[in-house]
Amino acid sequence: MVTIASLWLPILLSAVVVFVASFVLHMLVPFHRSDYRTLPNEDQVMDTLWQFAIPPGDYLAPSAGSPSAMRDPKFLEKMTRGPVVVATFMPAGPIRMGGSSPSGLSTAWW
Fold first, then answer.
1. Helix, coil or strand: residue 22
2. Residue 85's closest CA among 101, 57, 61?
3. What is the pTM of this model?
4. CA 95 to chain centre
5. Long-range contacts for 99-104 (Cβ within 8 Å, ≥24 apart)?
6. Could you report the per-residue pLDDT of 59-76, keeping only the tens digit for each?
7. Annotated domain spans of the chain
8. Phi then psi for 42, rounded to 5 degrees?
9. Where are the alpha helices (DSSP H) in the chain?
10. In this predicted model, what pLDDT tens digit does every residue of 25-65 receive, in sequence order?
């Protein structure tokens, strides 16, 4: 019978190999480079959105507000007419790693 103590080195080495392989695949292989496209007339869209002073957060448009309102003919017409938008607005400035809140303060525990 093999004990776990005798397997600590193979377990540790396999974890390191998997970490390095996943790092190489994520950073060097361009799987997700085309996930986000550039908006047409990006400057005009950004200038227009800036005027609304939208607080940071996740938004959906059109939004029904409740599950029962999703059957409302006005909502269905908006969905059919489009555009349907899911947007995340972040605070202005450089992108920070870690959590963020609408106040701009980090929500990370450390």
1. helix
2. 61
3. 0.59
4. 13
5. 100/56, 101/56, 102/55, 102/56, 102/57, 104/56
6. 999 998 888 899 999 999
7. 4-89
8. -55, -45
9. 8-28, 42-52, 73-81
10. 888 887 777 888 899 999 999 999 999 999 999 999 999 88
